[in-house]
Amino acid sequence: METLDKIIDVVAASAPDIRGGLAGRRRKADEENPSGETQMAADVWADEYLESELTAIEGVGEFASEEREDVIDCGEGLSVAIDPLDGSSNIKSNNSMGTIVGVYDAPLPASGRDLVASAYVLFGPITTMVVARAGTVTEYVVEDGNLRPVKKDLTLPHDPVVYGFGGRVPDWTDGFADYVDEIEDELKLRYGGAMIGDINQVLTYGGVFAYPGLQSRPEGKLRLQFEGNPMAYILESAGGRSSDGEQSLLDVEPESLHQRVPVHLGNDDLIDRLESTL
Ligand code: F6P
Ligand code: MG
Questions:
Q1: From the CA of 193, how far away is ligand 1's center (Å)?
Q2: pTM, 2 dp
Q3: For a Cys-Cys bond, which of 40, 123, 132, 205 suits 237, CB 3.0-4.6 Å?
C-alpha cells in the first residue's frame, strides 16, 4: 500500500479511539504548547497517540505537531504535520473539534506547494473525514475506523451562505472591518471557535472563513504548517481560494515550524474582494 494511503488509513483508524478518549480529558494540562497556549489533557494525549501511530509507518520520514517544539526524524520519506486536536478549547463546552493533517513531500517547515495531500477529521455529531489529494476532495464518514465515502469530487457551492471570523471585533484592522461591512449584508454569521468546524461549514454551504491579522497581532493566530497550509490545500482543491491577505497561503514562504499566518479561505470571489479591500 502506498505511504499516503497508509497515513490516511491510520488517521481514520485512530479517530474512534481519540474521540472515545476525549470525555476523561477535559481538564487543562500543566504545560503550554510551543505557541504559548495552555494545553488540554486531550491535546497532549491525541498528540502522543498520533505520533506513535504515524511515525511507525514506513515511508514517513518526519513528524511534527503543533503540540511539540521540534520535528521528529523517523526515517526516509514523506513529512507529516498535524494539529492533533484543533479547537480543543471547545472540549469544555462540548463543541466541535478535530484533527488536521498535512502531508508534505519536503523537509519541515515546508511550502504549501510541497503538500501531496491534506485531511481533517471532524468530531461533530458524526465523525467525518475530508481528504484532498491529486486535486480532488472527498468527504467520508468514519465508521469503526474505516472510511465510507459520502461526497466525491466535493466542490464549494457557487452561491455562498456563511461567514465566520476570529479575533475580537475592536482588534480587527480597518481594512478587514470594511470587508466585514460589505459581506455581512450578503452572508450569515456562523462561528464556532474551531477552524475545522467553521471551515467545514464553508465547504458545505459556501462562504468565507478568516482568522485575520489583528491590530495587536498582525501575524494572526493560526499556524502555517499545521493549519493554514493543509486547510488552504483542501479549499483550493475544492475550487475555492486561500489568502494571507495578498497571495495564496500555499505561496507563503515557510520560515519556522510554528510560524503564524493570517488565514482567509472561501469562495474565490469572496477572497478576491477581501484582497482588494485589505
Ligand atoms: O487552533 C486554533 C483555534 O482553536 C482554531 O481552531 C480556531 O479557529 C481559533 O483557534 C479560535 O480562536 P478564538 O478562540 O480566538 O476564536
Ligand atoms: Mg488548531
A1: 5
A2: 0.97
A3: 132
